[in-house]
Design goal:
About 35% of the residues are buried. β3, α3 and β4 form a beta-alpha-beta unit. With about 170 residues, the protein is α/β, with parallel strands linked by helices. The radius of gyration is 15 Å and the shape is globular. It has a single domain, classed as Vaccinia Virus protein VP39 (Rossmann fold, 3-Layer(aba) Sandwich), CATH 3.40.50.150. The chain has a 6-stranded mixed sheet with strand order 2-1-3-4-6-5.
């Protein structure tokens, strides 16, 4: 890994801002990324980035790819060193889709890569559109079964929206 990159105050302030919406502070997954692996080189995938992607700082030696099945539907090619998954799993239609999506993410991750993922209770309070209720512990177990090493990042997540770092 490279040495940590220095961000300007303007770059730090811009993390988490989109063209239509500004967060009071950067979304948890992106803050965790900035604190933990921004110094890496390689490919970064913003998986499920939505219509108005969040500003994700990168530096020389990094490539940022955005993917969202609705808004940026071109399937990413190759593997990634870092995958960011913010507010994706909680809006999927059913538990089968959650399992498939986590499997898809695992297939895009390089060996020794990092996945930053959260599972907010809001907007559905753990209830998927099909009525299935899943919680943070269920998601954490699924992540461990898929990736092997999973750490719940207490300092970045909240009780209602934990952030997990996963590695193969």
């Amino acid at each position: 890994m490279n040495s940590p990159v220095s961000l300007t105050p303007d770059q730090i302030a811009a993390v988490g801002k989109t063209s239509l919406r500004k967060y009071k502070q950067p979304p948890l997954v992106y803050r965790c990324y900035c604190e933990n692996v921004l110094h890496c080189s390689g490919r970064v995938l913003d998986y499920g980035c939505g219509r108005n992607p969040v500003y994700v700082p990168v530096h020389t030696g990094m490539e940022l790819v955005r993917y969202d099945i609705c808004y940026f539907p071109e399937r990413p090619k190759g593997e990634f060193d870092v995958i960011l998954v913010s507010n994706v799993l909680n809006v999927l239609p059913n538990s089968k889709s959650v399992v498939q999506t986590i499997g898809d993410i695992a297939g895009l991750l390089k060996p020794d890569g990092w996945v930053f993922v959260n599972f907010p209770s809001s907007p559905r309070k753990g209830r998927l559109p099909d009525g299935t209720v899943i919680g943070h512990d269920w998601v954490e177990i699924l992540l461990k079964l898929t990736f092997g090493e999973v750490k719940r990042m207490q300092e970045f997540g909240t009780k209602s929206s934990p952030v997990f770092i996963c590695t193969k």
